[in-house]
Amino acid sequence: MAARRPVAGSGALATCGLESILEALKLLLSPGASDSGSLQITKHDVLLATLSSNLSALEDKLLKDPHWKKLKLLRDEIANKAEWPQNSVDVTWSFTSQTLLLLLCLKETMIHLAADFSPGKPSLRTPEAAPALSPDTLSISQQKTVQSVLQFVVTFGVCPYLVPGVGVPLRCRTAFGAVVQDVVCLSAPPDATRRLYTSCRILLNIAHHTSLGSLIFCRHFGDIAAGLCQLGFCPTKRKPLKPEEEVLTEEERTSSREALRDILDQVYQPLAVRELLILQGGPPQSCTDEKTQVRCRAPAWLRRLCGQLLSERLMKPSGVQAVVRGILEGAGAGAAGGSDAEAMAADWKKCDLIAKILASCPQQSLSPEDYYRDICPQILDLFHFQDKLTARQFQRVATTTFITMSRERPQLASKYLLEPVLAPLHRCLNTAEIPESGMAPGTILVTEEELSRCIEDVFKVYVVGNEPLTVLVDSLLPVLGVLFSLYCFTKQSVSHIRSLCQEILLWILGKLERKKAIASLKGFAGLDNSVSSLPSLCQFRAAAQGGIMITIKETVCDEDEDEALYQKVSSEQCRVEHLGDLLSHCQECGLAGDFFIFCLQELTHVAMENETELKTKPFSSKSVLELEQHQTLVEGQGQKLLVLQLLAILCERMSEQIFTNITQVVDFVAATLQRACASLAHQAESTVESQTLSMSMGLVAVMLGGAVQLKSGDFAVLKQLLPLLEKVSNVYPDPVIQELAADLRITISTHGAFSTDAVSVAAQSTLNRKDPEGKIEEQQQTSHEKNSNGSDLEQQQSREKSRQMGLKSHTPPIAQEASVSRTTTNYKSGSITTDQLQEVILSAYDPQIPTRAAALRTLSCWIEQREAKALEMQEKLLKIFLENLEHEDTFVYLSAIQGVALLSDVYPEKILLGLLAQYDGGKDKHTPETRMKVGEVLMRVVRALDLYRQDDEHRNARFSVSSDQGWEWRYPAIDTAFSFTCQFLIHITNMSKCGDEVTACLIAVAKTDHEVQVRRAAIHVIVLLFRGLSQKATEELRKYFSPILKIYKTLDKYTIDM
């Protein structure tokens, strides 16, 4: 395009004002007075008549008005130097030419006014006053006039001459545009291409002025760019034209191309991108006018050109932002927001379009790798905008682009996108690559800002994007250990990235293959050292801004080794607890259940391993091989303890719905059966193993009994239990479990077509326990037990609840237990028979703990209800209860204690003497634990009976404990046996019967016993003695004040503990 030509030496330019030029422009735009009475006049005729009338009025004004004489001289001077045809038969072109001349006059006048302006010095008295405006500044009304003029110039001088498919046709814009398209005479000289070239050249010349250029490009950049594309790149006819036949010379075409690239570089880049996309071919705009035609598709040369120009915009610095803004801001979500900005943020289709544009390598790039190297850093910058609205839009675009690139070119995306995002986490793992100067204690490896940005970016890409591509999942696996360590650290205090870390871990664990997920959880727990974790020389630390940073750990001094060991042990404990918290969110997907089954299988391996004793041989006398073996053995013991700790945490944190399908239930039962078989192989059968085995087999019976609707595929899974059930039925010593295992095997093999009574009864009993009415009835029958022995029943209920954890509240008993439980709930007072009583008595000797405990509770219930058949066999029942006191299971011996206490309440004189004899004379016959249990029975009897039944046998039994050899026995016996009596001494009418004996015994114990616990118990009883006597203490204990005070003084002087 031709450069601007300043008009030098013109006196008119110096004296012509802006007002006259703007008045002339207003005159050209003034609407004409049409003859509304004539119906024959059309819109086209009105428009042509108005244009002709305004042109004539302008000429008359310039010739006759003396105030416009200077404007006429300026216009004529510029017109004489103009090189384009100004007059034409076509009125529209004549109007456009005169308007362009006036705009040139306006530009030259503004330039001279600005050149002659010299602003004065600011006044020191009023420094706050605004500086003087330049005389070339246009007011708001003047700017509106110029904008209207530019609109007419583009409408009459540019748009009508664009070929179909280039730009938006006038017919598709407004009704006035359709009229203009019809009135323009393309056959009249000058040629349409020459007119387009002239209009674009003059508009670009005017745009050299800053304020006028902003008005032109703000609204008309797209039309001018379309005209330049057509002038510079539209292919000509195949036959070469003669020089006199060519409309544009090659020089003019070249200048059009250069002008196009210049304005594309000068304007706001998002605006350039948006207009190029429209030129390339946007969606067709709907036209309501019947006469308008559908918009043509952009020609191929224009689509290629726009694609090339868009790629150039993209390859420039900040080109990604320009492309994104150019697409998003056109939807109303501009830099300042917009009314439909929220709708734009939710438009994923548009985000996908931008992602495809950014992920496609342009032809101008040397290679895809070069393109990714330049573009990927800009894509990552889209994640870090501070403005909330803009950030939300850009982050969605960045996430979609990230995923699209990872899907199309995973290797390049891993190198240029994933590695930079995960670099702070990899820096902790690759400490060997850090120079020694950077490994000084206290050195910051990862700053607070880097770590926060890394976690936030990972969350946006992985969790928000939610696309489990292989490259994404594989890239996150090496740093999972560091992420989990960071998650554990955030749990220690308040942190804004805690929820992000948790969501990332839950996402990756849910998307991984189940084997890899279990392996990752093993690494989190410390069971698998192959999973990378935070190196020992690195540590997380709280940062100044409330975030977290990673530093080199300080050197541990010898004095701090104990503290370091404590920190290590406590951190391992916290890791296991935090892992339990994390798995509590993974129950629905089944991961928690699978990991629980894995821990059970590991427990089976622990049972199968040969126990090796840790030798106490000094380390100095061990060889290197022996030291390695010792280290391996120690690590193995640690792994076993860790497995047990994991199981404890999982049982505590998981809910009843931990198992989500039949396969997991079968795996759980299989692990239980395998552990039972392993325990038998090592001769390590225990009560707990027996209970767990009964519970798991009962669970299978429930499923086979109809609690779960089983399909053919479920029976295929259940058949995995057949070999284990066969082994249990052959080798397990308990005949009841053997029989149930054989019956379950038959039922599974026949797909439930044949089921024995044992399976049906076990399943039905378990289902009955789920019945709330049955529970209510049982609670009503045992209400007295709860009042008299609330603490023991709470322990029992807690024990039963712990057995139900993890199995959806199905606790299947074996057949005998079901029978006993049914006997307890179905038979009321006076309805039991001798056969039923004998059946329950036999069950009281059953090796199965639930069966035995249920039988003892049933007998106790009958005694409380005064069942005649049961009371007739009081001696036999007492023998049964006393024998069960020897049992090691809490559930059993507490039931026996309850039975003896109830029996003593019915026959106190007969039962109590036997208990006292066993309590006092059983030092050599019974273990201290049994004597403690008998003492517990006596205490319950004392509470249940009236306190006046205190004879010599009672007191002798209590006093005898003070001479027992074991202090572990003397301490609790004195504290419990004496204390209860002393608190109620106020109700005893004759204190002299036992006052001397009690006081003498307590004084002797407090003075002579060597154990501080026993002396403390004696002092405690003396305190209760005063409390029990209350106001009578001064009367009853007057003669004992002196020795008691001596004891207190002696203990206060020589015993620190007191």
UniProtKB/TrEMBL annotation:
It holds the Pfam family RTP1_C1. Residues 314-588 form the TANGO6 HEAT repeat domain. Residues 767-827 are annotated as: Disordered. Residues 768-787 have a biased composition (Basic and acidic residues). Residues 837-945 form the RNA polymerase II assembly factor Rtp1 C-terminal domain. Residues 16-313 form the TANGO6 N-terminal domain. Residues 818-827 have a biased composition (Polar residues). GO terms for biological process: protein secretion. PANTHER family: TRANSPORT AND GOLGI ORGANIZATION PROTEIN 6 FAMILY MEMBER, TRANSPORT AND GOLGI ORGANIZATION PROTEIN 6 HOMOLOG. Belongs to the Tango6 family. This is Transport and Golgi organization protein 6 homolog. The lineage of its organism: Eukaryota, Metazoa, Chordata, Craniata, Vertebrata. The gene is TANGO6.
